């Protein structure tokens, strides 16, 4: 587990988990592509033209799947960024409100107003 992630909202944890899974699927698919390519190079001389085409289609299909996983991960990363950005903006707004409330309370108290203290 990544340090600090347990403190993030559940949806962020879920997104990071999904991104890790997409990474793993991409890595597995790359291993499969390497195997298919090695197999093709090894036996291309003995293949019929239609067998070559079929094998190359398998490789192309695996690459397409890899791209699909990567695109999904980019989408997920963008959603996650938006989510974090929204949380930060909310925190900024809460902090601004808190500071304004604190300022109002301090100005309304005797703490910052020595004139009202001397009247008493």
Describe the model.
The protein is mainly α and about 120 residues long. It has one domain. About 85% of the residues lie in helices and about 0% in strands. It has helices spanning about 10-45, 50-110, 115-120. The longest helix has about 60 residues, at about 50-110. It starts with 9 loop residues before the first helix and ends with a helix.
Task: Provide the descriptors you would attach to this structure in a database record.
120 residues, mainly alpha, 3 helices, rod-shaped, ING5 protein, chromatin binding
Taking all Cα atoms into account, the compactness measure Rg is 30 Å
Please tally the β strands and state the result: 0
**Average pLDDT number:** 88
Low-confidence stretches: none
- What pattern of helices and strands is seen along the backbone? HHH
- Helix- and strand-based class? mainly alpha
Short description:
The chain contains 3 helices and no strands. With 120 residues, it is mainly alpha-helical. The protein has one domain.
Give the SSE map.
Blueprint: H1 10-43, H2 49-108, H3 114-119
Helix pairs in contact: 1-2
